[in-house]
Amino acid sequence: MINRTTPSLAVFIAFFSALVGCEVIPVTATADDARLDQLMSSMEQSLTNQATVSAELQEQRQHLELQQQYLTLMSRDIDEAVNDFIEENCPKAEACPAPLESAGKMRVGALETIWLPDLDLALRARIDTGAKTSSIDASNIKPFERDGKRWVRFDVVDPTSGRLISLERRLERTMGIIRSGKQVSKRRPVVKMSVLIGDLEQIAEFSLSSISHRDYQVLIGRSILRDVMIVDVSRENIAPYTQSEMPSASKENVR
């Protein structure tokens, strides 16, 4: 009789042996997982550092605000102390007298109405501290000789009537005028005339020239202003206007 259990037992023994002979392979972490863990750790450390820095900055800001408040209070206390010291120890400043009045000089504006006794005319004059010699608008200027001396005859327009007033004066000298950008010098005759500005009358030199294109007929220079007048260029017609009491017919020619 054939035993049927022998092959089955052999198969079972072979299968069991195969199971016992299998080696269990453990699962290992890859390199990418290690780098990811390192990156996460770095991010956590960076966040921690930022939180620490932010807290320190906030603390410093509060400290600076306290210092600013302290400095403001200290500055206020110093100002109050200085003001109290000045009030207690420094005398009150007294108003100084007006320098123009104390100097005894007459104040004139940039434009003034002056009186020329030799012409019996009131003319509008420009006060010019940049000019040394005064000048008057004249026409028909004709030099001539009298008693061996040089004289000059000229006309001045009366601004009220428009008529020409002739006057003869001895020629004092001639002055050269150089136009801007030109080399040729133009000579102007210079005469002496009496002039009244405010209540100050004096004899001064005037050059004869054509200035009719301007809004004044006379230019007053430094030779008349010096030591007796102060110019306030911001104002006009501030000098008291007066006329000479002596009529021009009784005046002698200025020699």
What this model shows, in words?
The chain is an alpha/beta fold and about 260 residues long. The chain has a domain at about 100-245: Acid Proteases (Cathepsin D, subunit A, domain 1), CATH 2.40.70. Helix content is about 35%, strand content about 30%. The chain has a 7-stranded mixed beta sheet. A 3-stranded antiparallel beta sheet has the order 5-6-7, with no helix packed on it.
List keywords for this structure.
three-stranded antiparallel β-sheet; 33% helix; seven-stranded mixed β-sheet; elongated; Cathepsin D, subunit A, domain 1; single chain; disordered C terminus; alpha/beta; 255 residues; 12 strands
Write the SSE topology.
Layout (H helix, E strand, L loop, with lengths): L4 H17 L9 H59 L9 H5 L2 E4 L1 E6 L4 E7 L6 E4 L1 E8 L2 E9 L6 E7 L2 E6 L6 E13 L2 E10 L8 E3 L1 H4 L3 E4 L23
Parallel strand pairs: 1-12, 3-11, 4-10
Antiparallel strand pairs: 2-3, 4-11, 5-6, 6-7, 8-9, 9-10
Biggest beta sheet attributes = 7 strands, mixed
Give Rg in angstroms.
54 Å
Q: What gross morphology would you assign?
A: elongated
Question: What is the oligomeric state here?
Answer: single chain
Poorly predicted runs of 5 or more residues: 96-102, 246-255
Q: State the CATH superfamily name of the domain at 100-243.
A: Acid Proteases
Fraction of residues in helices? Answer: 25-40%
What is the terminal separation in angstroms?
A: 186 Å
How many extended strands?
Answer: 12
Q: What would the CATH topology of the domain at 100-243 be?
A: Cathepsin D, subunit A, domain 1
Order of helices and strands: HHHEEEEEEEEEEEHE
Biggest sheet, spatial arrangement of strands: 2-3-11-4-10-9-8
Provide the CATH architecture of the domain at 100-243: Beta Barrel
Mean pLDDT over the residues: 79
Number of helices: 4
Give the structural class.
Answer: alpha/beta
